[in-house]
Amino acid sequence: MASDKSFIEFVADQMRQAGVISYRKMFGEYAVYCDGKVVALVCDNQLFVKPTQGGRAYIGDPAEGAPYPGAKLYFLIEDAFEDREWISSLIRITADELPIPQPKQRRRKGRLDPL
User: Fold this and answer.
1) CA-based angle 51:55:58, to the nearest 5?
2) How does pLDDT run across 69-92, given as a tens digit for each residue?
3) Is 1.20.144 the CATH number for 5-114?
4) Which pLDDT score is estimated for 30?
5) What percentage of the chain carries pLDDT values higher than 90?
6) What is the residue extent of each domain of the chain?
7) Separation between Cα atoms, residue 77 and residue 95, nearest integer Å
């Protein structure tokens, strides 16, 4: 089951205190970005936050789940996303621990060039 646009809009709005929040549809589900970093996935109207040490310490004993078959485990945030301050803090902690994304490469006449 694909996620509802209204759900992703609500979740993104709840996180807005964390930084620049955006989302992108991917295969019927959504990737959530904070300041250009993928910090979470929304799949089947469930919020999965990328696991980090700081996030684990902040949550305490997080529920974990795979956002899709074969995926690594993420923190499954069931109802806590309704607390704007709490979810914004978790997303900020997560974004701060994740590396800056590498520039994408594109193919050009048999070789890869930076975009």
Assistant:
1) 150
2) 999 999 999 999 999 999 999 999
3) no
4) 97
5) 81
6) 5-114
7) 16
